[in-house]
Amino acid sequence: MSSSSPCLKVSEIFFSLQGEASRAGLPTVFIRLTGCPLRCRWCDTEYAFAGGTAMTLEEVLRATARFPARRVCVTGGEPLAQKNCLVLLARLCDQGYDVVLETSGALDVRAVDPRVVRIVDLKTPSSGEAARNFVLIEDAGRALAARDEIKVVVADRADYDWAKARLNEHRLWQRCPVLLSPVADALAPAQLAAWMLEDGLNARLQLQLHKLIWGNMRGK
Predict the structure, then answer these.
(1) For strand 27-33 and strand 7-17, is the pairing parallel, antiparallel, or unpaired?
(2) Cα–Cα distances in angstroms (integers) from residue 201 to residues 40, 136, 145, 156, 192, in the given order
């Protein structure tokens, strides 16, 4: 392993369909980095909290290039918890990839390469991590651009009402698209859809396409 190349702790690199946000359904290479400072109750990738494999940046880029796609999603865990994630994102863009970052919103996204599309979670009360929404709540979404997206995972009516109040208070839907997802096995998609229609909410309902196809299978 070259000492001159930045290193990352990688949980997995795999090729699948993007399951969420505006790129849902598109073949995508996923780079899942290890580690996360949050402990959301509804997390479905707890295996990425620890472990993983130390890889140089060049090794990650070579592994990514093995797959027949020009779209890459860097995710976690919380990818921005590793400082070299910023280097990885920039290098992927330099190589001509269409790059998406999935991040919690607990860490500052302003240093992310502007060529990267940032999919930022707004943590609801049921997640147990709503107090960590620093960038979106304290900074009122100013860090985001029109090409970015906000994702809100909703478990119940209290979550929905909280999210609706935050979206309207900060007019986040004017900054970028907002997507609401029901927590699997906790909230029926039809119920969330009904609330959104009743309010005419400025947001899009999304379901996790990869789970509809493969279930909660690792590497899919």
Answers:
(1) antiparallel
(2) 25, 18, 20, 16, 11
Please state the pTM of the whole predicted model.
Answer: 0.91
Across 48-154, the runs of DSSP E, i.e. the strands, are: 53-56, 71-75, 98-103, 117-121, 149-154
Q: pLDDT tens for residues 17-39? A: 999 888 999 999 999 999 999 99
Q: 126-184 pLDDT, tens per residue?
A: 999 988 886 665 564 578 899 999 999 999 999 999 999 999 888 888 889 999 999 98
Provide the angle, in degrees to the nearest 10, between the axes of the packed helices 85-94 and 57-65. Answer: 40
Binned at pLDDT 50, 70 and 90, residue 213 comes out as confident
41 domain residue, yes or no? yes
Q: Specify which residues 16 forms β-bridges with.
A: 28
Number of domains in the chain: 1
Which residue range forms the structural domain that includes residue 178?
A: 7-214
**The 3-state secondary structure of 163-207, one letter per residue:** HHHHHHHHCHHHCCCEEEEECCCCCCHHHHHHHHHHHCCCCEECC
Does some domain include residue 219?
no
Query: At 152, is the secondary structure helix, strand, or coil?
Result: strand
pLDDT, tens digit, 9 for 90 and up, residues 1-12 = 445 789 999 999
Q: Is residue 2 part of a domain?
A: no
Is residue 1 in a domain?
A: no
Q: Which of 120, 198, 209 is nearest to 166 (CA)?
A: 120
Residue 16: phi, psi to the nearest 5?
-155, -170
Q: Find the CATH number of the domain harbouring 113.
A: 3.20.20.70
Using CA atoms, how far apart are residues 180 and 144, in angstroms rounded to an integer? 17
